[in-house]
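hiii, so i know i said id send this last week but things got crazy w the move. better late than never?? heres the sequnce for the chain we talked about at the cafe, plus the structure i predicted for it. fair warning i was half asleep when i ran it
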Amino acid sequence: MATGIHTSGIRGLALFSIAGTVLAFTVVAVLVVLTSVMGLTVSLLRRTYALWQIVGVTPRAVTVAVLVQLIVVAVSGAVVGAVAGGLVAPAVVQRLLQDATGLETLRVSDSLTAVAVVAILTVGVALVGGLGAARRAGRTPAVLVLRDASAGRRRRPVRRAVTALLLLALAAQMLTTLPTSLDSGAAQAVLIGPVLVATVAVLGRIVSTPVLHSWTAMVPGRFVAFWLAQATVRWSVARSDGALAALLVAIGLPAALVAGQQTVGTVLGGATARSGGTLLILGGPVLLAAVGAAAISFMASRDREREQALLSQVGGTPALQVIVAVFEGLVLVLTAFLLAVLAVAVTVTAEWALLVGAHPQARPVWAIGTLLSGAAITGPLMVAATLFPMLSVRRRSTHARSR
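okay and structure toks below
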């Protein structure tokens, strides 16, 4: 954005367009990850919030306390990120611009004002994303200390459905205007896929549960470690929903963008974006979503301690526990991969169907390589996020028994 201000002509407008797209995708990734993280945090601490109310803390005070915690974390993260971004971002953007058509000779400008604005916007987005979770924390009933903390969680299918319908309406509007926008470059082709990915992420378990059940049912039940892993993913709704949403963004966002853009590119003479421009637009949001998915899975170590204790009680060996943890990460990644395939398939099929009548040369481009790359990148992260807490619990248990 700062470079675009100091660049005149078409190249300046191009930089503003890139910056706006990056900002939009980053906000989507931040909201998905932050909403999932805050939702999981409140889910894990519901009993604590109930105890606060028993000792006299009002529901409003609980909400304020959670918001203060969020502000402290958001400000700390924004400051660290701003410093790191100010040092690293100019060089990275400069390198990526060398691969972007028409922008190779630009010199990237750095600005302390821009860094400060980004930090402030980050804190603002964090507050917006965490406000709902803070309110839910304040509504935690005190009687929850007498029963399972997972009980009494109210689902909000109506809110999810309304949000999904609005996103679908936006995608439909962009699709209907796609054929008439070809002369001007069909800019909305870049956004149709990501909007559909966001729709699937918003629907959450409404879509993910049938997909998970369908593909895991094809694995024979005699594979005990796999059966336990998929059962854990199904049971641990709070952590699996959040991880799947973030993984879907990490895998599906770049694939949907590339597939939609290249499908339209077959009509526009095969024009496709160069890798530098794609990395410039999606690198940050995808990395954020991938790391966020791993963090969500890692946060639930308390639940894993209980699961591991139960598995040990029924005769599960240490080797079996390791294999179950590895399979849990892989089940999450493969389910998110299939959800991303679904979003990409809908995007490409819809665009191709609208274009092929007037443009017989149109053909679908599935971006299979991008999908597989996303799964390959997120797979090790998720396996590490499910494996390390299990190993940590085993280490603590071993030390406790040796005393």
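btw Residues 1-154 form one domain. thought thatd interest u
miss u guys!!
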